[in-house]
Specification:
threonine biosynthesis; about 35% helix; elongated; amino-acid biosynthesis; 16 helices; alpha/beta
């Protein structure tokens, strides 16, 4: 019998218990032995639960129990999750987590500690919820050079953008609906500002390229500046707007990585990933494009991935699988975000009709290609620019102002 402990009994933690209890027999067959939850750490009381006798408020009780060989960390946040995880690995206990903030910030340190102590630190659920992505990158695609990863990594923002695209909602109304339906937190800032997606693309990039990419080294933009007008221009261009986390290895050996809204062609495999679903495209030199699709969050999908890692840990209790590992960050590993050229959509506003605005914009950007959206109004114009870096676009803003134009928004155009 394998004894485990669960740290946290929130949405994911309760889901883990539900999956373990509901599928107890089939899980035992896959793990080659029965898995028994010995302790659950939470400060709250749960007298109504049939397993209420398993709860403890004392982490030390779990840490000092020699029978507990695997600890599931589903508390979320960096502390005390990091301190508890580190203590468990130092005490000879393997750890499974769904905590993307923990892995994104402390992954290199914790993986090194696990390897040193011949233990496992597994985190399949930290990126795609129930979507298998960590193992495929580390195992199934291991023979490839991963040239690029691009993903719709946050269900809340994808739901909001879907409503803006399909139903013409403004951002505020779509966000309010997401909150009403339980797809967005009361404080949705980590979602709509791109923080959640940033943590996930950092984990994937660290895994794919073997060097820890910290979230604070990644440029991140959310979707709060996206308007109905931008959505309309994307449609006129032949695509949709999605919040994308992108990581790409450049020829100079540096990593281009960012999170931002992007125009996605309707022909892209990610264009039809809608509502709360996530999609992750991995581009390998041998396989080409491989896409992983499914619900990126939720109680049971995430719990399913956590329990799968627990089963893996049980089957390898006496050995570190040595599959998941990356080094700490290298100096200047991440390319400055604003120097990489990329096709860009630009929307300008000013006095006059759209034809006049575009003619004046062409004085600054001779290569501009105009877009005309349905119900376009005077005082605005939209166009695309080929291969221009953010720093160059920024330098041209004073020239636009001299033409009586304001750069209202710009959205990158994806090439996948």
């Amino acid at each position: 019998m394998a004894e485990i402990a669960v740290l946290g009994h929130g949405v994911v933690g309760s889901g883990v218990l539900e999956v373990l209890l509901t599928h107890k027999d089939s899980i035992a067959k896959r793990a080659k032995e029965e898995i028994h939850v010995k302790r659950i750490l939470d400060l709250r009381e749960f007298p109504q639960l049939p397993y209420n006798g398993l709860f403890t408020k004392d982490f030390q009780e779990i840490l000092d129990d020699p029978e507990i060989k695997i600890v599931v960390e589903v508390m979320g946040g960096l502390e005390p999750a990091f301190s508890y995880t580190k203590a468990c690995l130092e005490k000879g206990k393997s750890v499974v987590t769904s905590n993307k903030e923990l892995v994104a910030q402390k992954g290199a340190e914790l993986l090194a500690l696990a390897q040193k102590n011949n233990l496992n630190f597994l985190f399949e659920a930290s990126v795609g919820g129930g979507i298998p992505i960590i193992r495929p990158i580390s195992q199934c695609l291991a023979a490839n050079e991963v040239t690029e990863i691009a993903g719709i990594l946050n269900g809340t923002t994808n739901f909001i953008l879907t409503k803006m695209i399909r139903e013409g909602m403004v951002f505020a109304d779509a966000l309010h609906l997401a909150q009403q339906l339980g797809y967005a937190e009361r404080d949705p800032s980590a979602d709509v500002e791109g923080v959640d997606a940033c943590r996930k693309i950092c984990i994937l990039a660290s895994l794919a390229y073997g060097t820890h990419v910290y979230p604070d080294s990644v440029h991140t933009e959310g979707i709060t500046a996206i308007t109905k007008e931008d959505v309309g221009y994307a449609s006129a261009w032949g695509g949709v707007i999605k919040l994308i986390g992108e990581a790409k290895m450049l020829e100079n050996g540096r990593l281009h990585i960012l999170v931002s809204p992007m125009f996605i062609s309707r022909e892209s495999q990610l264009a039809n990933v809608d509502d709360v679903f996530n999609g992750i495209l991995v581009r390998g030199d041998a396989t080409g494009d491989v896409v992983f699709y499914g619900k990126g969050a939720g109680k049971l999908p995430t719990a399913s991935a956590v329990v799968a890692d627990v089963i893996d840990c049980v089957r390898h209790l006496r050995s570190n699988r040595k599959i998941l590992y990356w080094e700490d960050a290298k100096p200047d590993y991440v390319e400055p975000w604003d120097v990489t050229p990329q096709d860009v959509f630009v929307r300008v506003t000013g006095e006059g009709d759209s034809d006049s605005l575009f003619d004046r914009a062409q004085q600054v950007f001779p290569k501009a290609v105009r877009l005309i959206r349905r119900d376009e109004e005077p005082g605005e114009a939209g166009f695309t620019l080929p291969q221009i870096a953010e720093e160059e676009l920024r330098e041209k803003e004073p020239d636009l102002e001299k033409q009586g134009l304001r750069l209202a928004n710009r959205v990158r155009i994806a090439d996948f």
